[in-house]
Design a protein that fits this description.
With 436 residues, this protein is mostly helical. It starts with a helix and ends with a helix. The chain is globular, with a radius of gyration of 22 Å. It has one domain. The protein has 22 helices and no strands. Helix 4 runs antiparallel to helix 14, helix 10 packs across helix 18 and helix 18 runs antiparallel to helix 21.
Length: 436
């Protein structure tokens, strides 16, 4: 059977079972194993087992449950509440000040937890009611929380970056360093958009009335709220960049910081640790099954010889190497609307990475572009995870249509940021080159 027919049947089978609602890991692994058996026979399973065995021996994998556990504990402390109060006091007197403060808190949360949903849930619970009570336009308030919440997978530490490193073989430390400047860039671009729009349309995000504004002593006392988050960020990122720990060891430092935060906020309880541990086991188990499926998919895909087919198709795209990169970004952007980020990584990276490297592009730079696209996927309909996190906690008067409409200008801002990083790769590569 020709490679074209095999490829068509393979991806059609994947799509069919995914549309039936079956779990991604079992669809990806199951279809891959069936195709492996009928193309290469029973002996091909040894190749899958060998690859899985090699991955399970990776020290980097230990970082995943540690970062997840850190995020689960930090979700249950009072860090987000105190941070919002501090931002409320410092920024509330400005037009759009609460929105800007919420963006800042989302960036701090992203630098602590490494996953997307934590900041969305925390800010949707704390900041959204506060903004709506003070006359903020609901599209502005929803869009800010949706956008800032997605930064958890871009601003390190990031679970997706660890998975990208495992799949592609690049350095986790370099990926973490590469995510810092793009994260800052996206935060600045979003803040500029909010400031300009609130200047042109003051009714969207009014400043707090005089009687609600804080005195300078109150503002300075509120700054204590940032000490613990900054401490956790320094323990994780500072130890990696300073060369004190590996990313895996830094994850353990992050857990220590989260436990100290829980103790300071008097949330260091057996019930909190138990719930965080159970949720960590569930998430880690899911990730491990997806990794097993990834190896089966990679083995099946390579054994069919589809790599040559994809490379020949990519070479037909006009615009040369840059045309190919742009086409990849468009494909990932469209996939992110309907699939979860881990599934997209497993399906596309085995295809894209050999092409990216053969064209002479930096895999770290491409990884940042990929992760930003995944971040946009978290906030775009119909299946963006952040949309559903937000829908679960918004007041009854806000519909899913309101949430969908709120993200349009913020997605455009993110795309502008993505374009700047494509045009100026140094935004992503400068820190990795400096520290490593």
């Amino acid at each position: 059977m020709s490679i074209e027919a095999l490829t068509l049947m393979f991806f059609a089978a994947l799509l069919f079972f995914l549309l039936l609602g079956l779990p991604l890991a079992f669809v990806l692994g199951g279809v891959s194993v069936v195709f492996l058996y009928f193309t290469w026979g029973f002996d091909s399973f040894y190749m899958v087992a060998s690859q899985i065995w090699g991955t399970m021996g990776s020290f980097t994998l230990v970082a995943i449950p540690l970062f997840v556990f850190m995020a689960m504990i930090l979700e249950r402390t009072g860090v987000a509440r105190d941070l919002y109060r501090m931002m409320h006091l410092w920024c509330g007197g400005l037009r759009g000040g609460l929105a800007l403060g919420t963006l800042g808190i989302c960036a701090v949360f992203a630098a602590m937890v490494g996953i997307s949903g934590a900041a969305v849930v925390a800010m949707g619970t704390i900041a959204l009611p506060s903004m709506l009570e003070r006359g903020y336009d609901k599209s502005m308030a929803l869009g800010v929380i949706n956008t800032g919440g997605g930064w958890g997978i871009l601003i390190p530490p990031s679970i997706l970056m660890i998975l990208y490193a495992l799949i592609t073989g690049v350095s986790v430390g370099k990926m973490f360093a590469a995510g810092i400047m793009p994260g800052v860039l996206l935060m600045v671009l979003t803040a500029i958009y909010i400031i300009v729009r609130c200047h042109l349309q003051p009714e969207l995000a009014p400043a707090l009335p005089e009687e609600e504004r804080a005195s300078w002593p109150e503002k300075f006392r509120a700054l204590r709220a940032v000490l613990l988050p900054i401490g956790v960020v320094i323990m994780v990122l500072g130890s990696i960049i300073g060369g004190i720990t590996t990313p895996t060891e830094a994850a353990a430092m992050g857990v220590l910081g989260a436990l100290i935060s829980a103790a300071v906020y008097r949330q260091f309880k057996w019930s909190v640790l138990q719930e965080a541990a159970i949720r960590t086991f569930k998430l880690t188990g899911m990730i491990m099954w997806i990794l097993f499926a990834a190896h089966a998919f990679s083995a099946a895909y390579q054994s069919m010889g589809a790599q040559e087919l994809i490379e020949s198709l990519m070479n037909m795209i006009p615009g040369g190497p840059w045309g190919i990169i742009i086409a990849m970004m468009v494909i990932v952007f469209l996939l992110a609307m309907v699939l979860d980020p881990v599934g997209i990584m497993l399906i596309t990276l085995p295809v894209f990475m050999p092409i990216v490297e053969s064209l002479g592009f930096d895999p770290i730079w491409f990884g940042i572009l990929f992760v930003i696209n995944m971040e946009i996927g978290y906030m775009t309909p119909p299946f963006g995870f952040n949309l559903f996190y937000l829908k679960g906690i918004v007041p009854p008067g806000i519909t899913m249509g309101d949430i969908y409409r709120s993200i349009v200008p913020f997605v455009l801002v993110e795309i502008v940021g993505l374009g700047l990083i494509m045009v100026f790769p140094e935004i992503a590569t400068w820190l990795p080159d400096l520290f490593f």
